[in-house]
Amino acid sequence: MSSLNIENKKAHKNSYQIPPNASEHQRLNRQHELIQEMMFGEVFHSPIKHPIRILDVGCGTGAVTYHLGTRFPSAQIYGVDLATIPLDPKKPDNVTFVQGDYHDLLGSEEPHIIPGSMDFVFSRLLISGMTSWPSYILTCHTLLKPNGWLEIQETEFPYYDDSGIISSDWKWCQAYQAGARAKGLDLSCAIKAAAWMRESGFDDVHVIMYCWPHGEWMADRGHEEYRNLGVFLRTEQPKLYQAILPNMVSGMGYSEEEIRELQRDVLETLKVEEGKHKNYWVTFGRKPN
InterPro entries annotated for this entry (predicted)? Predict the structure, then answer.
């Protein structure tokens, strides 16, 4: 099946905080590799056996979509994203890409994305773009067949160390969180996903929490699967937050110099220290028969 791009005729309710350019695509692909490494080679945790149709929501570069297409060669895999997905010459024939808004999944012009059509719906790291989580999860419930699975993987925004939350008084965090709320984003979506799933009618809801380490300290404690991720996060996270901040706090009255000061605060607070981390939550549940 060939790639399909659908022009979204409605204003997007979600938006990228970082332009999806070649540099961002490279970062996302490396991030995908390291998440899989952290999970000992796994990409998802739902007990999927013989799927016919799978939906990857917010598929970005298509890394997970390609993985699913290879893992389940007899299934049809659909990847949905706001932006045009960069096509890989090695794209499996059973992968189709649809360009559109997450909230408009039920209104998609793709004839196979319809109620009761999916065996598995997957999304990962939509925290900076999803503006209506309960509605999205209810939509996924509608799209799934009975006994189909939904899996959501998200980071929890606060930073921790071994003593607890350490980022409450970081100036850039306070501004970032206020900007996110103003834009309708929920930075606590990771810890709320299980309750939202249950409220939408899912059964067998499971939660697995991973560490999102800032530096190599997890590997130094004997968890070697975290070493490369820790290096990546201590290098890339400060740059990522510096890049997102101007857009996140836009319209909140900050001057250019005040934004630059917040960006400097990112570097100051995200120095490598023992135990510094965020949490990465995997939540999955089953639509009842």
Answer: SAM-dependent_MTases_sf
Q: Choose among 177, 156, 180, 181: nearest CA to 168.
A: 177
Q: Give strand ranges (E) for the chain.
A: 53-57, 76-81, 95-99, 118-124, 144-161, 164-165, 203-213, 277-286
Strand 76-81 relative to strand 203-213: parallel, antiparallel, unpaired? unpaired
- Rounded CA-CA distance 102/105 in Å is 6
Tell if the pTM clears 0.70, that is, is over it: yes
Q: Give which of 108, 42, 48 is closest to 78, Cα–Cα.
A: 108
pLDDT digits 0-9 by tens, 211-256? 999 999 999 999 999 999 999 999 999 999 999 999 999 999 999 9
Ramachandran area for residue 262 (φ above 0: left; ψ -120 to 50: alpha; else beta): alpha
- What would the DSSP string read from start to end of 198-237? HHTT-EEEEEEEEEEESSSHHHHTT-GGGHHHHHHHHHHH
- Residue pair 147/46 in contact (Cβ under 8 Å)? The answer is no
Cross-strand bridge partners of residue 154: 281
Phi and psi, residue 274, nearest 5°: -55, 125
Is the CA virtual torsion 236, 248, 256, 166 positive or negative? Answer: negative
